[in-house]
Amino acid sequence: MSIQNKIRLKFSLVVFLAIVSIVVAYPKTVGFMSPIFDFVNKAQINLGLDLQGGYRLEYEVDTSKIDENKKEEAVQAAQDVLERKVNATGTSEALIQAVAGNPPRIIIEYPGAKSAEDLKDLIKETPYLEFKEEKTEEEQKAEKEKFNEMLAPSNETSRKSAIDTLQKIKDGGDFVALAKEFNQDPGSKDTDGVLDFMKKGDLVPQFDEVLFNGNLKNGEFYPELVETDFGWHIIKKLEEKGEENNKEIKAQHILFSKQTADAYQDYWIWKETELTGKNLKDTAVVFTDQGVSEPQVQLKFDDEGAKLFAEITKRNMGKKVAIYLDNEIISAPVVQAEITAGEAVITGNFT
User: Fold this and answer.
1) Is 251 helix (H, G, I), strand (E, B) or coil?
2) Dist. CA 289–CA 26, nearest whole Å
3) I need a labelling partner for 213 at 20 to 30 A (CA). Which of 47, 182, 265, 296 fits?
């Protein structure tokens, strides 16, 4: 991840926490983010959005207290936050764009809003902040097994579909047409399963074994399903070039995907605590000057939050505590010591 993207993620966190603090009646808490948005009151009906009309809002972004070399990232972060809120509604037609200027603006065109007020309320809706702790190894193992059991019927259906499709190919079915219809590989969906020239080692071992050690001729398909962590593949060799260590092969495959519990780690690794955004009393943003100037988010909890945070850090020494915003993990720092002062700092890389 680039430095710019890391900064952008941090700014997004800053914006979210600032909104949290504003909503709980601390409008002057967050340095330059108080407020980052000045509403311009330009909500208006715009029938050009789609056949049924829609609404257009404009925000001014107050960057007056942000370092000059960080203003662009701040505007982009604000745009990211707005996109996340709007996209969470399920719409695919909203347009959100930043417009340069002094001050810069962010324009939202939303065809699905029933009124301008509904759209404003959506933008101002409080993000949900949570603190979660790791489950024990025993709990994680049990939860993971439950997920795998739950996913087993779906995976069996996928495997049987792969068997049926392979049989169709053996019976003379059109590989390209079947790949177009059934391939579930996101990376090759648009190419009907075609994978451009690759060297040995570029793919997972099972795939490599078939292509480079399976003695397939150009135009031949492998007569058995090939199972990998991704699912079940039907593989066809298209052509090859080069020799020995320089050999490259172009192939086509049809993937019938497999789901595993690993895709749902958030559910079986973490458990909720009683500490949430309602326990925030104050937030502030500061920048360090070590290398790239990066924002740190300082949190202050109310009395109840301070007690809960102390208990959480005490029982999780050397373990991770996850911070979630709107059900998405944004940080999982390792607890180094019990924290009893009722304050915390979020910094470092968000991974």
Assistant:
1) strand
2) 27
3) 182
Secondary structure (3-state) at 113: coil
Helices 71-87/3-23 angle, 10° precision = 60
Residue carrying structure tokens 């053996």: 170
Under 8 Å between Cβ of 82 and 106: yes
Q: Across the strands, what pairs with 194?
A: 252
Domain ranges of the chain: 32-125, 174-259
Q: How many CA atoms lie within 13 A of 195 on its CB side?
A: 24
Q: Please give the average per-residue pLDDT across 226-235, as a whole number.
A: 95
Measured at the CA of 220, the angle between CA 215 and CA 223, to 5 degrees, comes to 80
Please state the rounded mean pLDDT for residues 226-231: 94
pTM: 0.57
Single-letter amino acid code for the residue at 250: K
Per-residue pLDDT for 222 more than 50? yes
Distances (CA, A) of 254 to 121, 216, 226: 45, 17, 10
- Kindly tell me the burial class for residue 347, based on how many C-beta atoms sit within 10 Å of its own C-beta (0-12, 13-18, 19 or more): middle
Token pair 């829609």 is found at: 54
Alpha carbon 339 to its chain centroid, in Å, reads: 30
Of the candidates 188, 134, 142, 189, the one whose C-alpha atom is nearest the C-alpha of residue 332 is 134
Q: What per-residue confidence (pLDDT) applies to 124?
A: 67
Q: Quickly count helices (H) and strands (E) in the chain.
A: 8, 16
SS3 assignment, position 163: helix
- The pLDDT of residue 80: 76
Say whether 174-259 and 32-125 share the same fold: no
The residues that bridge with 129 in the sheet, in sequence order, are: 325
Coil, strand, or helix at residue 15?
Answer: helix
d(CA 286, CA 298) in angstroms, rounded, equals 8
Residue 3 CA, distance from chain mean position: 18
Q: Which fold has domain 32-125?
A: Alpha-Beta Plaits (3.30.70)
The yes-or-no verdict on residue 125 having pLDDT over 90 is: no
The per-residue pLDDT of the chain, averaged, comes to 77
CATH class of 174-259: alpha beta
pLDDT at 29 over 50: no
